[in-house]
Specification:
alpha+beta; disordered N terminus
């Protein structure tokens, strides 16, 4: 070894490979921090700019190929360089496969090869690579990649899928614990919580944990706020939580950051159309003619309260006792304990995308309010003229301004149709969809 040191060969070799690694690191930095040196208006150029940088870096790396072509580190850096592109590269797969054969302990080689398998659509191959990397060394990249693969992998049934999602949250948590300053790990933890939220019955605590993880991602890593997928995934959650202004802002930001991605502007447009429809239908009471409306309301009586009028009625909060029917104008914002909203259906909108089943109801004073019902089976709905009772309604005022559009209306949120009394009757179990909602965070 002393002779080698005198000749200076290993030292030179190491420094040249180190320079190569730094070149490829700079390439990743160019891609990931693009909006630190470019305006959002230039977002449409990002893909071609990154492709140009890949070619420049590849040329520099290949200048050393004759000297290092049998070195695992060289093969790794060439594979990493090609992996910057969004699509699968057979050449990258070949170089990375050779790198890990030459040096099985090369954790970065296994992780990058796993990403190539993933891009190829080979989830099992990707999972094996990330698991293999973890056997060499516990590291954040393998953990968070496994978290994503687990959520994408097919499962035998909804129970098995639920367990996979729980395991994926644990993997993402471990990745964050290894480096709390890594914005990507926080972002992937946010995605894991979103999946868990939609898979395991929409627990509000999980929604908050997802939003906190996304916020932490942006706090610790300034590049995270330029991830279009972060804005899109968070907007999906905002929309489900009826934070419509924030949802529209998120879809709009995602669209600006990735102009080639069609889904964000489509979702933004869909939500705007929904809000326009809802506000118009509230204002004109579902276009029901005045005479018909009076006829409908003439047979609206407290007898339609059904089980809610019984002293033994147990509400969702656990309160036992009959409920007092109230007019819509007398309901306060928030949870109206011990009260019930009673009215006639004047319009309905079927669920679309992430939307709830939506209907409008008018009370004895001819006030109209919109009701958003979640977790409904496809076959469930209400008809114009139906009498609906909403026990202990959760009332909200929506004031939304987005670009040049403004919306202002009151709404009632109902988390399951099982809470409603329709024409004096409770709804059967078939009216509710399974708790599992098919939702896959974007970028995964």
């Amino acid at each position: 070894m002393a002779e080698d040191e005198k000749s200076g060969e290993p030292v030179k070799e190491k420094s040249e490979l180190q320079i190569m690694k730094e070149l490829v690191d700079e390439l990743y930095n160019f891609r990931d921090c693009y909006f630190e040196t470019h305006s959002v208006e230039e977002a449409g150029r990002k893909q071609s700019d990154v492709a140009q940088e890949i070619q420049k870096t590849l040329k520099k790396v290949e200048e050393k190929e004759d000297h290092f072509k049998h070195k695992a580190e060289f093969l790794l850096q060439k594979g990493r360089c090609l992996n910057v592109a969004p699509d699968f590269s057979p050449v990258a797969e070949e170089f990375l496969s050779r790198a890990v054969k030459l040096e099985p302990g090369l954790v970065e080689g296994w992780n990058t090869l796993g990403e190539q398998y993933w891009k190829k659509g080979d989830l099992m191959g990707a999972k094996n690579c990330f698991t293999g990397a973890l056997q060499q060394s516990k590291n954040k990249v393998s953990l968070r990649n496994l978290s994503m693969v687990l959520r994408q992998s097919p499962a035998a049934d909804s129970d098995a899928h639920g367990k996979q999602v729980l395991k994926s949250v644990d993997m993402a948590r471990q990745a964050v614990q290894l480096d709390v300053t890594d914005g990507t790990s926080w972002y992937i933890l946010g995605n894991a919580y979103v999946s868990l939220f939609f898979t395991c019955g929409q627990n509000p605590q999980l929604s908050q944990q997802a939003l906190s993880a996304y916020a932490q991602s942006e706090k610790v890593d300034r590049t995270a706020s330029s991830y279009p997928e972060l804005h899109f995934n968070r907007a999906t959650l905002f929309q489900y939580e009826e934070m419509f202004g924030s949802a529209l802002g998120g879809y709009s930001r995602a669209a600006a950051l990735d102009p080639g991605w069609e889904e964000p502007p489509e979702r933004e447009k869909q939500l705007l159309v929904y809000l326009v429809k809802v506000t118009e239908l509230i204002q004109n009471k579902g276009k029901v003619k005045a005479r018909r409306l009076r006829t409908m309301l003439s047979n609206l009586s407290t007898s339609a309260m059904g089980p809610c009028s019984s002293p033994q009625f147990q509400s969702q909060t656990g309160r036992v006792g009959s409920l007092e029917p109230r007019t819509l104008s007398s309901l306060t914002h928030g949870h109206n304990v011990g009260m019930a909203a009673l009215g006639k259906v004047v319009f309905s909108l079927a669920s679309e995308g992430r939307m709830a089943f939506t209907f409008g109801m008018v009370d004895s004073e001819e006030s109209c309010i919109v009701v958003m019902v979640y977790n409904t089976a496809d076959s469930w709905g209400v008809l114009i003229g139906d009498t609906v009772v909403i026990p202990e309604p959760q009332v909200k005022r929506n004031s939304i301004t987005h670009k040049d559009e403004s919306f202002d209306f009151r709404s009632i949120r109902v988390d399951t149709p099982l809470l409603l009394i329709v024409n004096g009757k409770k709804q059967n179990a078939q009216s509710q969809s399974a708790a599992s909602v098919s939702y896959k965070p974007q970028s995964e």
